[in-house]
Amino acid sequence: MILQVQGVCKRFGGLQALTDVTFDMEEGQILGLIGPNGAGKTTLFNAVNGVYPPEVGKVVFRGQDITRWAPYKVAHLGMARTFQVVRPLNELTVRDNVIVGACYGREGHSRTAGAKVADAVLERVGLAERANQLAASLNVAQKKRLEMARALAAKPYLLLLDEVLAGLNPTEVARMLDTIRQIRAEGVTIFMIEHLMHAVMNLSDWVVVLDYGKVIAQGLPQQVSTDPHVVEAYLGDPRLAAELLAGG
Amino acid sequence: MKVGNVGAVRPAASAAVPSIPARFWQRVSFWVTLAVVALLGAVAIVSQRDTLREAMFTLLMFASLASSLNILLGYTGYVSFGHIVFFGLGGYSGFYFISKQGWSIYPSLIVGGLVASVIALLIGLSILRLRGAYFALATIGILEAARAFVANFGPFGGSTGLSINFSVYRQYGGPAQALWTSFYIMWVITFIVVIVSFYIKSSRFGLGLLSIREDEDAALVMGVNAPRWKTLAYVVSAFFPGVIGTLYFFKNGNVEPADAFRLQMSIETIVMVMLGGQGTVLGPILGAATYDRLRSYLLTSDLFKNLHLAVAGLALLLIVLFVPAGVVGWLRGRFAQLRRVLE
User: Fold this and answer.
1) How does residue B15 score in pLDDT terms, banded at 50, 70 and 90?
2) Which numeric CATH code is attached to A1-77+190-248?
């Protein structure tokens, strides 16, 4: 088990954002996290990597209890993430953005060694030509790739992807899916939040469904998509429900 | 467009000389900045005039103060309005050892800097939890608190301050020679500040600071230990004002609270950093030189002599509104090729 989430609860004032969330992740798999808007998916990421420490429950990463650790310590252990709303370091170049990932991630490179790692990663995600531009000058699809590059430069064991496909056109989605498959092939475990149902169902080895902060179902993609609880949760969103019923 | 893109020194594909490596240009920009500092000092030495030496002392002093503030303001993105508190507290401490303990100036300079750094460490651990305007306000509060404390602190002479006996200058070859010695020390300090600024900016530490400036929460998630690095930036940026304060009061022969904790001096330093270009190495030096010359013109003109702070305020307003990156930053943004040469 690379990640164990045990009974995690998180409350914001009067809002119970996560209630008793429990699941395990096996090394090398892609775990898809789905659920209607506001179900607590991003909050769960934040609870896992230390941005919002959970009040109750435990997060165990590679055998180590990391509950309530600061995010930078979690990053050093080998957990990297991308943000749903992209957060490039705007006034730094694309290369420097990625060097930050390499220098402060799991391997903690020097600036020079970090630059080499960054160039290799930029090549992989297809941003090599943009390396010297300011990050602010990239378009949305490129910024999503930059998020990915920064996270990869940290050489993580576990990669949290928060809606990396949102806002991309079909060609860009296909490219990103290829990249995700490649990353998994290299042995990186992936935990992804995604709204694009066909992508989740195709990529994931295991799917966890969150609704109102609770895990309402988990299992193989085919099992989850026919689970009555899941269909019910999505009924507020007829299009998604239809996609689910169609088998993804 | 703001600046701070350290790695942009590598030639772009379209540049005329793609074969020349980034390190070469980085070195060029390093030597250009040092040459500017060398030139500013050499002017006074060649002329041998006392008035010009004093003018250049002030200029170099502000250039170093602006450069050290830039480590916090420009690299890390934390606006310290009361940074002069370290000039005051460090200066008082160093001066205390010269006047009361009979130390030579050289170890006293180091002590002044170290005291400022230790105080910055303690202050930083508490107020660096604040961000944006709250941090800036806290730094003003600390400046005022320090002034009140020193004005009532017996060993530092209370509100009358401390002074040194003129016989102390004998070991430096008399008062006149001591002024020249102070000038040379100031020159050397400026070189050291520039070298440290450069080194930090091209280091892993500096990249961490820049990432904190851009987005502190994203930096934390990427593994940047922001609480530690920004405290360290605060400590480093407090060291040189402490050293410079000691030298300044040694040269003056006395120190008093009203002189040591001037909010106005703090604000003028911010204007210099913003004018030249926050986050660049050359910017604060050029900003200090420009502003200092402008100020001495204003102070000696009949029309403006009482209005020079109003002009500084207006300048700050105009810069923030129209050229937030400062002169060097604007040039870098406007002409991509210059990014290689202007760090």
Assistant:
1) very low
2) 3.40.50.300
